[in-house]
Amino acid sequence: MLKWAIIFAIISLVTGLLGFRGIAGVTGTIARFLFAVFLILFLVAVLAVIGVFHIL
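RE: above sequence
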Protein backbone atom coordinates (compact mmCIF):
# COMPACT_ATOMS: atom_id res chain seq x y z
CA MET A 1 0.00 0.00 0.00
CA LEU A 2 2.76 2.41 0.92
CA LYS A 3 4.62 1.49 -2.26
CA TRP A 4 1.63 2.51 -4.39
CA ALA A 5 1.20 5.74 -2.44
CA ILE A 6 4.83 6.65 -3.12
CA ILE A 7 4.49 5.75 -6.80
CA PHE A 8 1.39 7.94 -7.19
CA ALA A 9 3.10 10.78 -5.30
CA ILE A 10 6.07 10.64 -7.69
CA ILE A 11 3.74 10.56 -10.70
CA SER A 12 1.92 13.56 -9.26
CA LEU A 13 5.15 15.50 -8.80
CA VAL A 14 6.41 14.72 -12.30
CA THR A 15 3.12 15.57 -14.00
CA GLY A 16 2.87 18.75 -11.93
CA LEU A 17 6.33 19.82 -13.05
CA LEU A 18 5.42 19.11 -16.67
CA GLY A 19 2.28 21.23 -16.39
CA PHE A 20 -0.40 18.54 -16.41
CA ARG A 21 -2.29 19.96 -13.45
CA GLY A 22 -5.40 17.81 -13.87
CA ILE A 23 -3.49 14.54 -13.81
CA ALA A 24 -1.28 15.83 -10.99
CA GLY A 25 -4.33 16.62 -8.87
CA VAL A 26 -5.92 13.24 -9.42
CA THR A 27 -2.75 11.28 -8.71
CA GLY A 28 -2.06 13.44 -5.66
CA THR A 29 -5.52 12.64 -4.32
CA ILE A 30 -4.99 8.93 -4.94
CA ALA A 31 -1.61 9.08 -3.19
CA ARG A 32 -3.13 10.80 -0.15
CA PHE A 33 -5.97 8.27 -0.01
CA LEU A 34 -3.61 5.29 -0.26
CA PHE A 35 -1.34 6.76 2.40
CA ALA A 36 -4.32 7.26 4.74
CA VAL A 37 -5.42 3.65 4.20
CA PHE A 38 -1.86 2.47 4.85
CA LEU A 39 -1.68 4.52 8.05
CA ILE A 40 -4.98 3.15 9.34
CA LEU A 41 -4.01 -0.46 8.57
CA PHE A 42 -0.59 0.06 10.13
CA LEU A 43 -2.10 1.43 13.33
CA VAL A 44 -4.60 -1.46 13.50
CA ALA A 45 -1.75 -3.94 13.07
CA VAL A 46 0.34 -2.26 15.77
CA LEU A 47 -2.58 -2.19 18.18
CA ALA A 48 -3.31 -5.86 17.43
CA VAL A 49 0.30 -6.83 18.18
CA ILE A 50 0.29 -4.78 21.37
CA GLY A 51 -2.97 -6.45 22.39
CA VAL A 52 -1.60 -9.94 21.73
CA PHE A 53 1.57 -9.29 23.71
CA HIS A 54 -0.42 -7.65 26.50
CA ILE A 55 -2.51 -10.80 26.89
CA LEU A 56 0.62 -12.96 27.11
